[in-house]
Amino acid sequence: GESVGLHLPTLSVQEGDNSIINCAYSNSASDYFIWYKQESGKGPQFIIDIRSNMDKRQGQRVTVLLNKTVKHLSLQIAATQPGDSAVYFCAEFTYNAGNMLTFGGGTRLMVKP
Amino acid sequence: DAGITQSPRHKVTETGTPVTLRCHQTENHRYMYWYRQDPGHGLRLIHYSYGVKDTDKGEVSDGYSVSRSKTEDFLLTLESATSSQTSVYFCATTQDYSNQPQHFGDGTRLSIL
Predict the structure, then answer these.
(1) DSSP assignment of B32-78, as one string?
(2) Closest approach of chain B CAs to the CA of A106, in angstroms?
(3) I want to staple B19 with a disulfide (CB 3.0 to 4.6 A). Which of A27, A71, B23, B78 is the partner?
(4) Is A105's pLDDT higher than 80?
């Protein structure tokens, strides 16, 4: 499949453990944030999103935390499974930045059985 | 997912030839986007559309043109392909760019020899 990044940071976890993937965003005025998962040979898949007026949002087995003070976003995956192995990246939206999403470089998650 | 089909999925062509990539969506989303994804660069916006016949440039638009004659179709054209345009191209759509995530197709791998 396509290589999404030659020098991606990698997080290796044991199956069943919890995973935390971090993202530092650039614009303190960013209003909306999205986490995507990308498997080899596939397009990015939406996982969860959060608006800037929230600091936490939960989905099924995933939680996103937003710390606006330090411009930091994290994705927590509970009970990580082999099917969670993929590249994860965050995206931020800012109204005054051309109404475009800005994507982070990504983190590769490897789940060991 | 947003029913996005990209065609072709793979293409190999020679420098100087014209290339057109197609994105077809079945969700009646207003906004459509073309990105390229390269190792070390993440996703970069080429062009986007905010309605039929309404398009605008993104971050890396040089050498590319787009057209949207119907809501469901967004075409990306490389008028005279160069080796630097070898990449994986993704189409994305959303109904509301500021409140809803973009949903992606599975990409077109384009190699220009």
Answers:
(1) EEEEEEETTTEEEEEEEEEETTEEEE-TT-TTEEEEEEETTEEEEEE
(2) 8
(3) B78
(4) yes
